Amino acid sequence: MKKSVTTFANGKLKGEKLTMLTAYDYSTAKLIDSTGVDALLVGDSLGNVMLGYEDTISVTMEDMIHHGAAVARGASEAMVVIDMPFMSYQTSAYDAVVNAGRLMKEGRANAVKLEGGTEVAPAIKAIVAAGIPVMAHIGLTPQSINSFGGYKVQGKDEMAAKKLIEDAMAVQEAGAFAVVLECVPEKLATFVTNKLDIPTIGIGAGAGCDGQILVYADMMGMFSDYVPKFVKQFANVGDAMKEACKSYVEEVKAATYPAKEHTYAIDDEVIEKLY
Ligand code: KIV
Question: 92 C-alpha to center of ligand 1: Å?
Fold first, then answer.
């Protein structure tokens, strides 16, 4: 059965951990969907992982729709959440609703995700009022990397911790159905989790969150530009791909691939008539 916002609400109620992974294309989405994961996030991390940008700032609505629709076609059970890219919701609540609507209609999202706390609460409220579920994202919000001055753990001193709690309460109040906590000390993330009625989804926020999310290319060992401390590599698909590609190159050069079993037959009579 297709997972939904109800899956998230029930997860929190029953104390059953929620699972999310990113996906950016049909084949990967189909593969991950078959593992029972609760939701697939078409993260704007696609800017780093798929498009080779140094940050997520340049990712466009068209990028998100293009990749989102591909993921949606591969997800029969997992809920599909699509990230709202930089400047698609910060300008006004009107822009936020229009762009969230495009991610639903053209990208076939089941929900959208956007970054920020108190300052984006009006946008969340407007999108939710339009009937679109919103996942919030606080703590380290990569679209604000230029304001943070780097990828740093958030909420470490008293003032910053209080701001994080305020942000969490604001996005819940605005109607978000869940909130991602990124790069937050474990004890603070657990405190926020216990305070909220909506589930928290942690990434670099420890085991006390209601669920976890990772960028699939990080946990598969496929993305090596940088590996954050919180990433566990559950497999090394990157090395396996390199090995497979090396073997392919060697076999083509040695003319051992394609072999007989990889080719199509034709009657010799037909060939003879060509000479
Ligand atoms: O873009 C993304 O992949 C994300 C996750 C890291 C939460 O926002």
Answer: 22
